[in-house]
């Protein structure tokens, strides 16, 4: 291989570089060859000392962040992506963590308190309506007895009101029972959803 052929191959392999940079590299190796010839070296000896032009070109391209895909003389290249930063600086992470604790804890406590209040309210209503239904039923029994013995006036009207109260309170207690169960299922579903999203993240 002559010096001219060596330079032509090198220039061909470096075509991915900007023209000015490529010309500067070719000029550098051209001067190196000329200096060798002036020192009395054989052209073939100089070419051999420079090495394989494909390897020289590959090294130059790698230094510029451009890698040849495969094969000697293969003109397919890819540009290496810029290096990614290794996350946020420590001070930023500490600041985020501090605000996360300061803001997060009150929010979590408030949400838990609200959830607990709703649960207690549902069960309190359920218990209250059950007790009311039982009280109305007992009141109806007492009113029937008192009406029979004539101890009170309008005893049967009181009996009717107690029976009506027993029915209404029983229906409401059943309604709040199902509301409590439904809210519990909703809580489990939300917890499961948050857990699954946390695992995916």
Topology at a glance:
Layout: H1 3-13, H2 19-38, H3 43-50, H4 53-63, E1 66-68, E2 77-79, H5 90-149, H6 155-200
Antiparallel strand pairs: 1-2
Average of pLDDT: 78
* Number of domain modules: 2
SSE arrangement, N to C: HHHHEEHH
Strand content: under 5%
Overview of the molecule:
The chain contains 6 helices and 2 strands, in the order ααααββαα. It is mostly helical. The protein folds into 2 domains: about 5-80, no CATH class; about 90-200. A hairpin with an 8-residue loop joins β1 (about 65-70) and β2 (about 75-80). α1 runs antiparallel to α2. Mean pLDDT is about 80; it is low at about 70-85.
What is the structure about, briefly put?
With 201 residues, the chain is mainly α.
Feature tags:
2 strands; 2 domains; 6 helices; mainly alpha; 201 residues; two-stranded antiparallel sheet; 78% helix; rod-shaped
